[in-house]
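hiii, so i know i said id send this last week but things got crazy w the move. better late than never?? heres the sequnce for the chain we talked about at the cafe, plus the structure i predicted for it. fair warning i was half asleep when i ran it
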Amino acid sequence: MKHTIGARWHRLTYKISHKIQQTRRLSRKTVALGFLLAGATLVAVVSLIFAHLADYALELNAQLVARHPWFAWVALPFGFMLIVWLTRRYAPYTVGSGIPQVLASLSLPYGPNKSRLINLPQTLLKIPLTFLGMLIGASIGREGPSVQVGAAVMSAWGKWCKKRDLAFRGLQENDLIAAGAAGGLAAAFNAPLAGVVFAIEELGRGVLLRWERQIFIGILAAGFVLVALEGNNPYFRGFTGVPLPDMTLWVLGCAAVCGVAGGLFARFLYKGVGWLLPAQVKKWAAKHPILLAGALGLLLAALGTLYQGHLYGTGYMQASSALLGSTDFQPGVALAKWVATVLSYWAGIPGGIFTPSLTIGAMIGQQIAVWGGTVDYSGVIVLVCMTAFLAAATQSPLTASVVVMEMTGSQNLLFWLLVGSIIASQVSRQFSPKPFYHAAGARFRQRIQEESHSDRPAAAAEPNHTTKEQA
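okay and structure toks below
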């Protein structure tokens, strides 16, 4: 009898102890999930604030250009010079898109330099600097910067939580950087699925990521938080379209044209302005980057005036109207927008190329529709060219297809977007063998390694055998 009672008591105490342990594990997981969702919410809120600031800057620029024809001639050269000076002095790692900085951070070894390119205080300065660039009329976007800012926010949040032993003990820094970066893209475009595809195709290319489920939860959460705050509205609203007759021929033609244009676009961005300058002028430009930025601003002002201000900013309104069937564009506007974006990037200011690339593709598609006599169905051709040019510029066909599909609500055309983007990406490689973001990221990585090496004491310094990577 005593033996039976003792056995029952033992089983009861074991079950109680086991349930307590399960509850503790469940509680820890719930707390960790809560901190992850809090980090994703921070990324989404910062991206939303950035988006509203960017929209305000674009609206204000359009008003100023319309009221004062001389505005661009003053704002662009002097604005470029001011932004370059501020960037080089206070936030040197925020120049350009921001995606190359994230890729370089993922590839750097763990240590004090791991998050140097996404340092939170410096990276947050990218928001006002990009805002100022849009205000004066630079042909830049906010999506690439949102990726860098998202990575910085999540990385800093993860470090803060780990330091206090609150959460993320099982996640490496790369996991947090990837979750924040892709979450930033998802929030920027209001496209949660695109953020996941971007993480797998772009961030995971050439870098070993463990793909913990927390990464995908964080990415999706950032996108869903923005959906909850802003509504489930496509970035480009009102598009409707169905496959055209002879759709295969249209897709092949658009992919070929956009593949060439996008490949050259990526090559020009990577090579920089010094690639085209004579030797003596190139030396002068290297010594006077601020004056060079002013000269590029003057060129952009002249080009923008020629095209009545349609080249300034992201080009969202032009791309949106092209998707809805508008063909009221000046001849050569696609090439002019292409040049305007290259000039803005060469100036050395913070700003992305994502949305300007979509605009260039839209303008190419509009011109192809006019030449092909299919004005009534131009929206579908514009959609294919937007995807194809973005895929050619980034050589990330899956990301380009899913991003444009979510931005326009064109799920019924996803197959054709994939076909066009894959072909355009392959054509692009003939002109830019290495993807632009990764080629630029290699430069940032080498820069950090060289700076780290030069910071060491001379006696302790080791020989640096790193060679400069070529595009």
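btw Residues 22-26, 457-471 have pLDDT under 50 and may be disordered. thought thatd interest u
miss u guys!!
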